Fold this sequence. Notes:
Blueprint: E1 2-3, E2 6-7, H1 19-26, E3 33-37, H2 43-51, E4 56-61, H3 64-76, E5 83-87, E6 100-103, H4 107-120, E7 126-130, E8 141-144, E9 152-157
Parallel strand pairs: 3-4, 3-6, 4-5, 6-7
Antiparallel strand pairs: 1-2, 7-9, 8-9
Amino acid sequence: MALGGNPLVPFVPTRSEVLPAVFKLLDLKEDDVFYDLGCGDGRVVVEAAKRFPVKKVVCVELRKELAEETRRRAKKEGVADRVQVIEGDFFKINLSEATAIYMYLLTSVNEALKPKLKRELRPGTRIVTLDFPIPGWEPVKTVQTEGVWQKTLYLYVIGKSDK
């Protein structure tokens, strides 16, 4: 989502130390389709593609330079054939195939995404957000990680959290 051509969410990479907790909450399986909304430099999707035999890994990124960085990272790490990079606005991308989603956005953006998530995602789809909750939804689980920042993870499940 952009305002006057500028993204509403600044690029702040997820700390690598947080990733094990993210993946533990998402509990990725072979039949999962994993999306990272606003994937930045692709560190989360590349790690997911390396560590889990999921059906599909998708990065959605508005900024051209970051989408290109994700492609470079995926190629360097040998998972370019497993990471689909969509350069575009996640508000305009159909998310219905996703079964697991990671988001490190802002609370205001999470709030704006709620109707789209509820409309497009199937019951049982898991969503993990870092630091910023989805207002009005009840997390199934909240985890505190080590560190002074990027430490709170929220797990939501469509059909439970969005009641």
